[in-house]
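Quick question about two entries, pasted in order.
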Amino acid sequence: MQHLNPIRFFSAIALVTLLAACGKDSTAPDNSGGTPEVPNPPAADVWQAGALTAWTFIANNTQASTGLAKSHETFQFVTTWDIASQIAATYSAHELGIIDDANYDSRIKKILATLTTLPLYQGAAFNRFYDSQTGQMVDRNFKPSTTGFGWSTTDIGRLLTWLRVLAVNQPQYSAQATAIKNRLNMGRLISGGTLMGVDVDANGSTITYAETGLGYEQYAAGGFALWGNRASNSLNPTATAKAATVLGVNVWIDGRGNARLTSEPYIMMGLETGFWASALKDQAQAVLAAQKARNDQQGIITIVTEDAMPDAPYYFYYYSVYHSGKTFVVEGPGYGTVVSNPRWVSSKAAFAWHAIFPSDYTLKAFNAVQAAAMPGHGWGAGVYEGTLKPTGYATLNTAGMILEAVLYHKLGKAFLSQPIS
């Protein structure tokens, strides 16, 4: 049985608590009428304009004390996944000419200096959450902690990918990036060829588990492999795969349990490292094709992933192509929390899919999410299906992926040429 990945779950729970306290809500959209006509984008360079809007989030929310950006304007706690997204955003903004060399160097050096000194859980790995203002570990209740409450190799794998991008493409940061990687106890993070996570639950019990899930698992393992630390079982894209069909499209799902099939890991692979196995590229194209099939058959623009949203009751939702026998299912943070709405077209996923596999369909989705731009704040999660009204709610991860997508569009290739094997 597949173990629930606590970091994805707990990050979502944290956002639920935050947003519920803020009292944010929205009326569920009417999806019954199909999708209205999408206007053509403005004549200006929509890609660069999108990157500039995304960068405003980073510029507005970076803490001078640590160089780390808040994950949301009102939420100052971050995971290593968030920190990786900030490195990605900053790298992309520099390559796109949004920030100059001096600004970039200052920002990257500050982030790397903070990563060099952040306290580690049991001296082995980065804790699940940190205070972006102080750099302190926090506990499950976001209170300062000297012990923390575990780690996620999924999050750490994303950070390792971005440290490798810096080390390879910008050698002036290689020594710092390598020193940060060397802080990690790889013998505890990889066991028997599988990525391992640790969670300290609300009762204080420590749980060590295999951090699995088709897609995310391969993405994270790729980050470790870039540094020569191979989790051979986790790298294999088909060993645990099981065939399924979604609206006539053949896809792979995880045969071990409850892994959600969504866009996120595949678009990150495509942007950052490229699809280092043919099965991964085939799967990415199938995941996108299934989303297009829903549009073709039901007339609803469909681009799904996970996002923080302003909608009750959960405020954080997974929108999956397939999960637990259901297609195009929306859920809150925990399993068994299926809801009818919200349903939205994801900004970050629309940008990324259109960058990696451009087509008339991805252009249609890309045009639709332009309404989600929030000048002066960043990008909202997307637009609601049916109405195409913007969701609002700008976050660090949305900003980071949009900046990555714009850079990929400019380069026409993934950021790293180093093979993963």
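Here is the second entry:
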Amino acid sequence: MAKPTYDKPPVTISDQLDILEEKGMAIADMAFARHVLDTIGYYRFTGYAYTFRDQADNSSYLEGTTFEQVMNLYEFDRELKQILFGYIERIEVAFRAKVIDVMSVGFGNGQWFTDESLFFNSVEHQEFLCKMKDDVDGSMEEFMRHFREKYADEFPPAWITLQICPFGRLVKLYQNLEDQDKQDVIARFFGCDSTDRFMSWINSLAYLRNICGHHSRLWNLTIQKRPRIFIFGDRNRRRDNGKLYFMVCVIKKLLQPIISNDTLESDLASLFARYPFADKRKNTYLGFPDDWHNDKGVWQ
């Protein structure tokens, strides 16, 4: 059967507000609601309203649902992304530094990333070089402009070129390496007992970084690039690696060799305290156990 074409017309903000009310959402402050839809957008806003839908009648909202509740959830999610993005940045920078140092020193060559023989998938490697060539030629970074003006090399050495390499692309470069011993060195630096598991974790982290960086929704998110399971402590709790909490545990684990006294736990606890509505539902929609901060091996 052929798929239908999308034929829904655009709707004005006034009509969008009418639709929300018709579906059972109470709006106490119309001026505020109009401003929200004007600056956030109806589609993004209703993504947060989805968990308020009446499961028996998917076209309406649960009794008592308010516009302000949904907006409160949006603000919680926004702050959660800010917290996690800050810590992911620390891991990304450390991972970038280790890849550059371990490979450059280990191969004795700053141009190692251009050597096709070091990678098991030549097609993927050529795609990497093509994208990096475009990035190098088009970069307006002062250090890159300086190199282009002074040297004739197609690529600057790894410690320059890979500074502008997107995180996800750098992860793929690492995964494509033939030299597993050097991959192992980096995995062990981050305290991971398995290179395959570390690859899974760092790939999932790049996925989560993009969600945070592109301002997508974490609330009720199912992790599409699931990290491999690992028991972080002696509680042996069965965790769902498709929920955000498992990724938070991964972040905490990867931070250990980077920050001796991070404040991730207190940052999250403070966030939940400021948003009681989200706190009461964190298990269902984020996978956080009610007593998550008692997880030994993660937070203790």
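Reply: The chain has a mean pLDDT of 92. Residues 73-294 form one domain. Hope that helps.
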